[in-house]
Amino acid sequence: MGARLLVLLAAVLLGTLATGCAAGPGQAEPIHLSALPAEAAATLELIRRAGPFPYRQDGSPFHNREGRLPPRHAGYYREYTVPTPGARDRGGRRIVAGTRGEYYYSGDHYRTFRRILE
Fold first, then answer.
1. 21-25, 37-41, 77-81: which has the minimum mean pLDDT?
2. Residue 52: is it exposed, middle or buried by C-beta count within 10 angstroms (0-12/13-18/19+)?
3. Which of 29, 45, 79, 102 is catalytic?
4. CA distance 53 to 31
5. Would residue 109 show up in a list of annotated catalytic residues for this protein?
6. What is the pLDDT of residues 92-109, one digit of tens each?
7. Which CATH number characterizes residue 87's domain?
8. Whether residue 79 lies in the annotated active site
């Protein structure tokens, strides 16, 4: 029984590391805004001012299909581009905003999220 428990625990830990979600499914580890790229702070300010946004996709619904954020109703989350210096396109950095005022940062095109603390 002890070996089975260890295997199960290892599987859970490896799954947590693979999803980048050490806080549990649908939860994101926190990160302070000051630890993010300067472009993230600028994007957050644009979100609060309701634009204008540099990319037409900004403000589009984010569907959370992989369940990496807390589950919410359709339309709850919106996505915004965090510009990547030197990138020829939008790059992979995003802020996802919830309608209750919570913000999440992804530096790897939605593979992992960190909840932004201010």
1. 21-25
2. exposed
3. 79
4. 24
5. yes
6. 999 999 999 999 999 999
7. 3.10.450.30
8. yes
